Amino acid sequence: MSSESHSELECFRQLQQSPEIFELIASHSGTEFQLQKQLREQYPEDVVRAALTLAELRMRGRAKFSRADQMWFDRKSLEQATPEAVSNYKAARFSGSVYDFCCGMGGDLVALAQHARVTGVDLEPVLCQFARWNSEVYEVVDRVTVVNQPLEEVKDREGLLHIDPDRRPHSGGKVIRIEDYRPDLETLLGLIQEFAGGAIKLSPASNFAGKFPGSETELISLNGECKEATVWFGTLAGESEFRATAISKSGEVATIAGHPMDAFCSVTPPGGYLYDPDPAVVRSGLLDVAAAECDLNRLDAEEEYLTSSEPVDSPFFRRFRILAELSNQDRDLKKYFRSADFGQLEIKCRRIPVPIEALRRKLSLKGKGAGVLVIARLDGKSRALVCERE
């Protein structure tokens, strides 16, 4: 352990032994300067800095974790952590004993421990300590072991594997290519051969296509935002090559599996309804599969927007009622919105670049309603669809 890591770890240990500092931060009603002055009269300066940062991160962490107010993380580990709803969904496939390589602050670790005995492995001593404390927060510490060492030194291959490679291995920010992850693609492929089964967490924007033959790649969205691509391998892989899963704000899960070539949707003119697909469906390549299941058609061979004459309910699509079809010309758009009863307008586009704010300023929005303007290709032609949310 480097002297810097040791110093940081000791700072957090002092902070963990002084929980009352967070009560002082929460109850303080003065200025930030007054708060810092008060705390520094009672605690070392590095502990005060760590406490103020962690208090801020705990508030931010509520968007990901139900017990964020008690958890331990730093900025990077919170940003990279899997949201609790996604971790819980993935963890349900695991049982028995599991290694969680690159466990970080333990977001996936504590979810896995609800179903299995888990050994977390991470190179960073501070993150290992966070993982231990967070397993206490989630009351699974009796099923968790955390090891601070390089994963290359772990020789045991019994049980299953979950691994979350570092997507920020350098100071230059996120990397997209899996070959640039740490561990890299070659190491990940080796682990697939060595473990009976498991899951690899990847960015949904990564170049995962064709990299993991014989596996199942699942794109997972939460509240309409694609969060990760999970590569299931060995005994945990499903029968299909691709899967798209949408988790709603209320925790409901919808999933569909298949191959992009399993279905083909016709291109038709707009019906009475427009559908915007969940990004997990789009990124998995299963748009036509999900559309065929719902009897929807494409508006264009390349566009992801779909249409139908009758309303269709599906967790994979947001539905809009089409009010008008216009040319994508400023003259026609201005004329329509001068007489339309819209005070708010959401402008959506996927394949056609649109200066959204500049366009919004050109339109008269003096009414009371809320509308949606979709700029899209309809059978190869750029058009504008005026809609309202269903």
From TrEMBL:
Pfam families (UniProt xref): Methyltransf_15, Thump_like
GO molecular function terms attached to this record: methyltransferase activity
Alphabetical UniProt keywords: Methyltransferase, Transferase
Source organism (scientific name): Gimesia chilikensis
Domain of life: Bacteria
GO BP term (any one): 7-methylguanosine cap hypermethylation
InterPro entries with a match to the protein in the record: RNA_cap_Gua-N2-MeTrfase, SAM-dependent_MTases_sf, Thump-like
Gene3D superfamilies per the UniProt record, alphabetical: Vaccinia Virus protein VP39
Domain THUMP-like span(s) in chain numbering: 318-389
Protein name listed in UniProt: RNA cap guanine-N2 methyltransferase
